[in-house]
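pasting for the record
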Amino acid sequence: MNFYKEFIIRSIKIINIGWATVMYFILALIILHILNNIYGKPDAKYYEKMDTFNITIEFLAYIWLIGVIIYIIRNIFPLFPFLFDGIFGYDHNKVKEVTGATAFSIFIITFNDRLQNYYLILKDRLFGFN
């Protein structure tokens, strides 16, 4: 492969990685907004009144839901068109950042207030940390 073609393909790959990361970030924010509309904003006072068993079950069910959402997005996202797909034989679906949904997983967990509240309450109750 000549240098010019290699340079173009690697440049497209860098653009693709950046595009995928930004798109995964936007998707995570949209899905978190939808989840907050469905479940309501997390309320620490509400959870303080619940017993530990029910919070644990709710926490595990919510993690399960997040896992299913990550699976769905991981399988749908590669179907999104990429502007430079096919140029010099570049295949958008061979890039792990596109097909792996790692960035999406990080964003949807990091920015998820509900998961953070569950964690803080259970950490305090189960391990006595403040």
